[in-house]
Design a protein that fits this description.
Hypothetical protein af1432; OP_Dioxygenase; hydrolase; hydrolase activity; Putative HD phosphohydrolase; mainly alpha
Length: 172
């Protein structure tokens, strides 16, 4: 393994660990949310890039990164140079996917915290750049994993599982 890859994996491990005890939702901290999101993607037989994006879509909440309200853009900016354009785009599109689902799916029911953040993120809406992007269907899948990964009793992937997926993405 190249030194650069090993450094990237060490950074990722540090960022993931930093999510323990960071609360954006009421029921699980950001680490459990990340690991549950990854598990949902794995259960759905998502490819490695989608699994990794699902695990890392909220990494902007890490105190090591401190993205503030633009955590989706920060996730994209942090992930793209490390894991490629698709991983970065998918993670960065999770807010656009929420806005799209809120505007188009009458059965869409995000958490109360997510409903509150939606107002700050522009409210329901369809971004033409989002729905014409070739990866947008996978961004909707990621959003569904995100919304389902807020259960205090659910089992998630492990940090090592996420690092294994990241290692495979680095070696593709």
């Amino acid at each position: 393994m190249r030194v650069l890859d090993e450094t990237t994996l060490e950074e990722l491990h540090t960022v993931l660990r930093s999510l323990r005890g960071v609360w954006d939702e009421e029921s699980v901290d950001e680490l459990d949310h990340a690991l549950q999101s990854a598990a949902k993607a794995i259960e759905d037989t998502a490819d490695d890039e989608l699994v990794l994006a699902a695990a890392l879509h909220d990494l902007g909440h890490s105190p090591l990164i401190d993205a503030g309200p633009e955590h989706d853009a920060v996730a994209r900016a942090w992930l793209t140079p490390r894991f490629g354009e698709r991983v970065g785009w998918l993670a960065g599109a999770h807010v656009a996917a929420k806005r799209y689902l809120a505007a188009t799916d009458t059965g869409y029911t995000p958490s109360q915290v997510s409903v509150l953040s939606l107002a700050r993120q522009g409210g329901p809406g369809v971004d033409p750049a989002f729905v014409t992007h070739p990866w947008w269907p996978d961004a909707l899948r990621l959003r569904r994993y995100d919304d389902a990964a807020k259960d205090p009793g659910a089992r998630g992937a492990t940090i090592e599982d996420v690092l294994t997926v990241a290692r495979r993405v680095l070696h593709r």
